[in-house]
């Protein structure tokens, strides 16, 4: 598995795209929308708790339920990364709260160097197979995620014309790149995908079903508006697959990349199906 995954060109390209993705996210952030959400705290705080606390806890539960699986550790690593950018588009189609979706993705991304290292530290306590250099991982995430995102925010505030011009060029490039890599990645490791698809899919479905049902009951319990609850559901279903790739490469764990890809495909089926259902 390791040799095939490590030789795949698609996965070698993805780490170079991450800074561009997060610069784009920062440079397209609407600061006024984020400020408004901070005044309507309940949905925002709950959505953030779901993303950075409850999802990793679901990941830990998944690792224990499927402790004998080759993807046991991967089940956690996938759920400790921030939400993916596609959530904003799906929220728009669902007629949800796009500002809330963008804010959750942005803030979770900014916090991710700390939250990912924190959850990796917790996971490493009872996983001998998980050997981590925490300072190196934190530094890498700061360089790949936090720094370009901060530069994007700076561009919006201080250089709005440059931000608009650069993001308009990046938009199509990133869309095409992500679309191409979505197909080329699975193709390059197609034999491994076929051999492990059932194993990965059952864990992914278990995790995704827990996310949907947990958010449904918690949203009702704390009386989150339906439009916000739908937005948070979509956000919870869309993890940032490129960061999963980086974690897999960093820890030399090809099974993380394989499971991350399977989870991405299954989660898109969940998220798209949910998006096009009539009921919120």
Features:
0% strand, 280 residues, 13 helices, mainly alpha
Describe the structure.
This protein has 280 residues and is mostly helical. Helices cover 83% and strands 0% of the residues. The protein is built from 13 helices and no strands. It has helices spanning 2-6, 9-27, 31-39, 41-65, 72-79, 86-94, 98-124, 134-158, 160-188, 190-221, 226-237, 241-250, 254-275. Helix 2 (9-27) packs antiparallel against helix 9 (160-188), helix 4 packs parallel to helix 7 (98-124) and helix 12 packs antiparallel against helix 13 (254-275). The chain is globular and about 45 Å long. The model has no long low-confidence stretch (mean pLDDT 87).
Silhouette = globular
Helix segment count? Answer: 13
**Structural class designation:** mainly alpha
Strand % is under 5%
Radius of gyration: 18 Å
